[in-house]
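thought: fold this chain, then report.
action: predict
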Amino acid sequence: MDRTHHSEPVDCHICGKTLKSNYNLREHIKSVHELKQYACGICNKAFAFANRLKKHLKVHSDERPFECHLCPDDDPDTEDNSRMQKHYKSEADLRNHIREILIFEDTFRTFTQVNALVLTVEQFSLGSFI
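observation:
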């Protein structure tokens, strides 16, 4: 007996968006189409769910709980604020930072490989390998 719950995709009767399940449809309707009852007291941005407001409030604080473990540790003796540059307010900010690092590294690696190939071709054409 299979106890896994599978549901067919369902369409939102308001906007036509297709969602994976009835649960996702209920969440979609509440967060997109219904009145949002949880408002930020600082910027008035409203949310359908209390936990999303709680998460949003961190934007207005100095709290930076998400640390990038790809960035090297700074010298603890420095007085500047550079150590906090590897800390981010949200997971999305940290993901974007990591994505930028990986894109840069991939571009640099490709650039280095292309330069090595160009040098090899130049050396070969100049007879350096003979």
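thought: worth noting. Residues 91-125 form the longest helix (35 residues).
final: tokens above.
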